């Protein structure tokens, strides 16, 4: 489908980004910014929330996990819903729900209601994220235009995450409720702007009905998987409850695959996963976000619990990584055009591995400029290269009517990867917790967790390297299109 706002046949240099086109992108960036902002802000505010509402540590954990559960569990359904019901409609409705849940979250006076509002926010983000990404990929023509748009879009996620850390440190000093309320007016402004600016999208007219069994099975399996992984460190990885939950997930996923293979209008068309580049993008997303979430979790504990840094001091320590991503936003698209996604992802993972490895040098009296800052800069450079490249690689070559599905699949990989490896890192650190806690013993118990984080990044690098088979990036030429399988493409060396 030709974008109503661009002309793919025109030379890139001849295509001018109109104010409306910029406005469309900014609305979508605002939603992605809010998702990342909300995730990072709540972590710093948890101690204040627990004190004010008299919540236990296990209850506080569900303020974070409730969001992850709603987000990670419903992304597949959110992506396909955007394809079937219209991307603009789904995006705006979900953004409105996000704004309302943000408002309620800042006003409630009980833990269960706060957790419920967080779950609803995660649920709404599970619809805005794939809908927003698919609006970009169907509005901007594949190639340099889309690459530039996606690099700006994904940069907003890193910027939101970094700003969330700093803002939460400032706002929590006044009241934790401000951290919950802040996204509401931003979401409302984005909603009003989106109502005017977002291109109207038609519902998929030639679909073969709604895959209700697939939607139920896919959503149930993702919800149970995220729930099981989040609870495993507390229930025990080898406990009967955890093992039975994983078995149930395996059964649900098996039935889901069988249903999708027979469904005339599947929630996920399994033929998409026959592409090696698509599989590498999905696995790369799991390793990328899984390693970073684990690193951020351990580093925050290290800085606040062991070094005694304040929440704001800790946020500022992470800031160089986010600032580097923000500054590079206008450059990544052109770098992708020149070198291709696979090489950039490999280079990014290599920088990430090096950054994590250097952080293993930390001690109880680190010199920030010599020990912490180099790791932050390397990790920031890695995020700037990897995240936009993964989005570009996952969505390239996919038909417009399946962009929501692929976007939901990619975001699911990101969230599930984060949930799984955060739980693994937590379990490893807990297993090495010393009986007699001294500062040095606690730091030593963190090191196996940092090693796991580094190992996950190494795995991501190795997966990416399997796609580097030619010395120069290959471009794809569509030679035939099939009604049941993805377009056949022939790699052509430049």
Key traits:
Growth Hormone, Chain: A, 494 residues, two-stranded antiparallel ribbon, 16 helices, 2 domains, cell membrane, mainly alpha
Folded structure, characterized:
With 494 residues, the protein is mainly alpha-helical. It has 2 domains: 15-199 and 267-493, MFS general substrate transporter like domains (Growth Hormone, Chain: A); 212-266. It is 75% helix and 3% strand. The protein is built from 16 helices and 2 strands. The chain has helices at residues 19-53, 57-85, 87-107, 111-139, 144-174, 176-181, 183-197, 212-235, 240-262, 276-306, 311-327, 332-339, 341-359, 368-395, 403-431, 439-465; strands at 474-480, 488-493. The chain has a two-stranded antiparallel ribbon with strand order 1-2. β1 (474-480) and β2 form a beta hairpin. α3 packs antiparallel against α4 (111-139), α10 (276-306) runs parallel beside α13 (341-359) and α10 (276-306) runs antiparallel to α16 (439-465). The two termini are 27 Å apart. Mean pLDDT is 81; it is low at 1-14 and 470-494.
